[in-house]
Amino acid sequence: MDDELESGNLRPYVDRPRTFPNMRNKAYNPLIFRVLMGINVRVLLTLLLLGFGVIFYIGARTSPIIVFVFSVCIISFLLSIYLTKWVLSKDEGPPEMVQISDAIRDGAEGFFRTQYGTISKMALLLALVILSIYLFRSPTPQQESSGLGRSTSAYITVAAFLLGALCSGIAGYVGMWVSVRANVRVSSAARRSAREALQIAVRAGGFSALVVVGMAVIGIAILYSTFYVWLRVDSPGSMKVIDLPLLLVGYGFGASFVALFAQLGGGIFTKAADVGADLVGKVEQGIPEDDPRNPAVIADLVGDNVGDCAARGADLFESIAAEIISAMILGGTMAKQCKIEDPSGFILFPLVVHSFDLVISSVGILSIRGTRNSGSKSPIEDPMAILQKGYNLTIVLSVLTFGLSTRWLLYTERAPSAWFNFALCGLVGIITAYVFVCITKYYTDYKHEPVRTLALASSTGHGTNIIAGVSLGLESTALPVLVISLSIISAFWLGQTSGLLDEAGNPTGGLFGTAVATMGMLSTAAYILTMDMFGPIADNAGGIVEMSQQPESVREITDVLDAVGNTTKATTKGFAIGSAALASFLLFSAYMDEVAAFAQEPFKQVDIAIPEVFVGGLLGSMLIFLFSAWACSAVGRTAQEVVNEDYKEKPDYGRCVAIVASASLREMIKPGALAIVSPIVVGLSFRILGYYTGHPLLGAKVVAAMLMFATVSGILMALFLNTAGGAWDNAKKYIETGALGGKGSECHKAAVTGDTVGDPFKDTAGPSLHVLIKMLATITLVMAPIFL
Predict the structure, then answer these.
(1) Would 318 disulfide with which of 227, 255, 592, 689, CB 3.0-4.6 Å?
(2) Which tens digit of pLDDT belongs to each residue from 65-77?
(3) Is the Cβ–Cβ distance between 599 and 236 less than 8 Å?
């Protein structure tokens, strides 16, 4: 065998039964699921009915709008159960496929348990820090007038933080749970029909998307209505409804905290395993990446689930939660300034938009059917075209439902035409999302010129491949930035000209117009997440087909699905960056309002000509580059440990998974701690300096500059990393279709090098960055009192 490896002449792999080891001794389910499964069915149904009754009672006491939101979310959960049963009813294929799938599931659930155990401990520690800060801070005048004491405010914020962290963790688990069960069913379906395999992958992703978005919406709705009833909001001498959204900030911070560490840990795991598999297989031994002889192959497939599914579920959950809360805060502030009699429509508008998102995305998911390609030898339809049709349908429905929502909730006698302006703001956001998807697809899909040019550069060597990939990534930042800039200015102008005026007669709708545009951009979030989840499920399916040595015709189907999955993953990352840019702008505005409330003086501008403030901006930009460097180097160090696990005829899959898991958990701490500690240390340091120099707001101003510069730098860096990595990956896939010499050629080897370089870019540093910039915004919002 060794002689054959040295000569490069490998024997055809004999089709014989193989076994894949279990990574754990018994089935694992989170504690909450084990408790629920141990309860009698009738008792459980009774408890569920009582729970629904309490929820609807609290909702009815709050607003009919909340009742509508609860109803839609519960219906979407029922639909997700139907999708789950539909997917799980499909066959798992021959025994060798099932064995491989079981090994992947064991590894993914084992890593998830360990990772989220670590994250939960850090979350509890941070909750104690938040509690200490809030117990010793001074309350705002609004809180004092409403009787909301210091301790009550502290416990509310900590409870919201822990609930947000818990829900974000559940969202991540849901994403992984479905992917490790759907992958083998997609593999089995690919033996019969490409269209059936596509439908299973989409519906599995749809289940996760509906649960994640529904949980984000219903979680905030329950928290809002509970606080509304408990604090007797709008009663004489109590808190006003326009101030209530500020109590929800902790929920967004908890979601951001878990999403960051989930993305870091999962991203390091998946890309270290992927890089290791590429180097051990394609480069060192000349065997396919998913060949059973490759010791890193199971770890690579496990990584798809913990990095691309679990982490992305927590990521999108956090994106929606942050956008809803910031828009609710700005809606309440604008309603207060304009003296609108019933501000509830402006405050609850984001919840209604995302409720309609669940409805229209469900239609888009169900529109993809498996009625064609009845045989595996039939011509393969373009999966991207099928997914695009579903997205187009969702976009059309989104425009209609968004217009309906604005007329229903944003109509006011003070400015009868304002709702139409805000509907146009939403249209700006929807168009922005669509354009972002098209731009990212253009730069990452091998049907278009940029990726084909990158593949051609591989024909002249490894160096030219890297140069072409870096230049493509740098160029790809231009169009998205222009689109974001145009959308912010357009939405702000439409909001300003809506006719809403404050007491002094000044237009006040600009910021809320930007918030509405952000809602428009995320109004199809569930379908976008469905396309994102489709990618890793298809990737896993291809790995299972390769390892179980299915016929070439089956592998051709999964290869096409895998290539499309790479494009959809890159597309949704571009979408996430665009929404992160708009959401961070809103959170920045909310932070300035929060500082003004605590300082009891206006805080509307940040002057970067002040040296200390400019230094804060530099520190924010530096944070982005340092964080990215640490995330990429973490992948490199972990991958080295994988490569050092020697090639064997009978590779030890379990040991390779253990190596990657322990290293990724260790490596995620440093960049994560940097993100949390940096704004706190900078804010406190300059607060002390401001105290001695007679500038009481210096700490808050420096943190504002840090947040502003970090957001701008982070958006550009994330765009570069995500697009370059996706383009390198699909350039390799393009060559593997037979172009430019095909697999095994010198051109292919150069493309593998580019793909290896791009792996930590697109799946570790890039996705973590857009979570980072939103977490910086939420942490500064929560910690604002300590900067004054």
Answers:
(1) 255
(2) 999 999 999 999 9
(3) no
